[in-house]
Amino acid sequence: MVVQKKETLLEEAAGNVVEFLKKNESEILNTWIANQLKSVTRRPDLISKEELEAQSTKFLENFMKAISMGNLEDTAAKEFEPINTLLAEISKDYAVRGFTPSEAAIYIFSLKETLMEFFQKEYTSDPESFIRIVIHISRLLDKLGLVTFENFLEGREGKLKEYAKLMSEVSTPILFLWKEILFLPIVGVVDSKRAQTIMETILQQIVEKSSKIIILDILGVRVVDSAVANHIVKITRATRLMGCESIITGISSSIAQTLVNLGVDLGGLITKSTLIGGLEYAFDMLGYRMIQDSPVTKK
Fold first, then answer.
1. Is 67 buried (19+), middle (13-18) or exposed (0-12) by CB count in 10 A?
2. Alpha carbon of 100 to those of 3, 109, 157, 256: distances in Å?
3. Which end of the chain, N or C, is surrounded by fewer C-beta atoms within 10 Å?
4. Span 245-281, pLDDT tens digits
5. Do the beta carbons of residue 235 and residue 246 sit within 8 Å?
C-alpha cells in the first residue's frame, strides 16, 4: 500500500480542482449566477443582475488564482488576500444596502453548492477523488463563508454607529441664535450618554463660535427628575469653565414642583420659564435691549 503525504494530496487535489475549473469556468460561472438569481433569498431590489454577474466573475477569477498555488486550507495566506479583500468589500456593501446575514451568506454557499454539482458529475467513476476534493473545497468555502459573515457584521455595526452618530447630532441641534448667543432645545429623554454628547457638542460650539451665553430649553424633555437636573447642572458648570453662561428655559410649573419635591438644588443656575424670558435676559447680559417692533440695539 502506498501512503502519500498530506501535502502531496493537497497539491494533487488543488491541481485537479484548478484544471477542472479552467476547463469549465464559463459553465460554472453561469450556473452559479443562475443559482443565485433563482434563490429564495434573492434581492433584486438591492442588487441588479448585472452587478451580481460582475461580482461573481471577479470572485471566481480571484478564487482560481488563489488555489492555483496549491493552497486549499489557509485562507490567511498571501495568495488569498485579493479574495479576502473582495469579500470584505462585498459583505460590508451588502450590510449597508440592507441585506440580511443569510442573504449575504448565500453568495459563497451558492458557489459551494454549484461546485459540488459539477464535481459529482466529473468524478462519478472515481468516488475516492470526489470525496477528497469535496472535503477540501467544502472546508475552504466554509472558511470564506465565515470571512463573509464577519465582514458583514462589521459593516452592519459600522452602519449602526453611523446612524447613532447621525441621530445624536440631530437630537442635539445647537443654533447660533444671535451674536455670542447659542440656543439648544433639548427634546426627549436625557440619560448619561446623551448628556455627555450634549456637553461635548456644546463645548465644541462655544469654542468655534466664541459664544458668551447658551440658552438650554428643556420644555421638550419627557421627564425631569433629579438625574436629569444633575446632568443639567454639570453641563452648566462645564460651560461656565469655558467662559460661557448658561440660561435654562422652559421651566414649567410642573417641572418646578417636581424639582422642589425632589429637593434638587438649582442654586447658582439662571432659570426662566419661557424662551423669550431667557432671550431677554441674555441680551441684557450682553448689554443689548429689546424694543417691540424694532431691531435689538446696544444700550
1. buried
2. 46, 15, 13, 48
3. N
4. 999 999 888 888 888 888 877 777 899 989 999 999 9
5. yes
